Amino acid sequence: MPMPMPVPDRTEISGYLDALSARLGKEYAASELAYVQLGAPVLWGVPVAGMIGKVLRQSRCGPKVAAKSMDERARFAISSLPEKWQGKLVTKLVSEPGPHSEKWSANHVQSVAHALARWCRASAVLGRELRPTGTSFHVYATDLRADGVSDRSVADYLSRILSGFRVVADPGFHSTGCEHVIARHDALAKVAGRPTKTGAQIVGASTIFDLGVDLMGAARENGPRGLHCEPACNFDPVEG
């Protein structure tokens, strides 16, 4: 009769998982320990297999990060703008003191901040001034459309840039050229209607079905990994 294998305790299993995670990564380590769990009922009994399962579940649980409020998201978006612009846009938040009629929703402030930050990056790359003009708006709109942005979104981006610039830089700013570019893309958006998925973006049901059949066929051909396959790492149940 072969000698019975010593039964590992929770500390040994956890230590083995930690050591394996440090060498090969958490996902791979958890996968290897899951194979050990399959053989645990034969080697040590069902209770040990249950204990290994608890160790695996606990390793996958992490502390929950509290979701940021809309106000926090807006302030984070503002932080990506030039420092001299940030304070003026922060005052538009409802959480800041001031007349409520002059405030914007946090969602709108975030959208304006993102549009302004994108405008700043584009201006820096192309060597243009931050002050919008009809020509710079036209070039920027052309670039957006080349990236696949719809005319509706282009008009929205430009409108946010214009309204944001009036808040952070020049309250009395007005540009007939900028207004013309916005109006043009707004009109194009109305003609085009709501954007929908193109034929190339739609995956047919038969394609999904065929993929499933191929995957199941490959799984049957390869077969499951057995308990006696050579493991990717040498696990000694005694030493851990």
Give an overview in words.
- The protein has 240 residues and is mainly alpha-helical.
- Helices cover 63% and strands 0% of the residues.
- Helix 1 runs antiparallel to helix 2.
- The protein is elongated, with a radius of gyration of 30 Å.
What's the gist of this structure?
With 240 residues, the protein is an all-alpha fold. The protein is built from 10 helices and no strands.
- How would a textbook summarize the main sheet? none
- Number-wise, the strands total 0
Instruction: State the share of residues found in helices, binned by percent.
Output: 55-70%
Give, in order, the helices and strands.
Answer: HHHHHHHHHH
Shape: elongated
Distance between the amino and carboxyl termini: 24 Å
Which value, in Å, is the CA radius of gyration?
30 Å
Oligomer: single chain
Question: Which terms would index this structure?
Answer:
240 residues; mainly alpha; 10 helices
